[in-house]
Design goal:
Length: 81
C-alpha cells in the first residue's frame, strides 16, 4: 500500500497517510477540519541488497549444482598437475 501526502488548504498542515490504492482520497484536515488536497509524492525508493543485480544472481538450482560440480572437477585437475 502506498503512502499519500496531503496538505490542508486552510492551515497548511502537511501529513502522510498509508492508504490502499482503491481507497477514496481524504477530504478534511485532521487538525482544523478544513479542506485538503493530495500532493504528488516522490514515490518509493529502491533498496538494493546483496552482491548486485546480475543474471547470475537468480540462476536455477540445477544450474548452481552443475556449476559447483564443474568447479570441483577443475580443482581436481589442478591437484593432478
Amino acid at each position: 500500500m502506498p503512502t499519500y501526502e496531503y496538505q490542508c488548504k486552510r492551515c497548511g498542515y502537511r501529513f502522510e497517510v498509508f492508504q490502499s490504492i482503491t481507497a477514496e482520497p481524504l477530504s478534511t484536515c485532521p487538525k482544523c477540519g478544513g479542506p485538503i488536497k493530495r500532493l504528488i509524492g516522490i514515490g518509493g525508493g529502491f533498496l538494493f541488497k546483496g552482491s548486485g543485480f546480475y543474471i547470475t544472481d537468480y540462476r536455477s538450482e540445477s544450474y548452481k549444482k552443475a556449476e559447483k560440480a564443474e568447479k570441483g572437477e577443475s580443482s581436481k585437475d589442478k591437484k593432478d598437475e
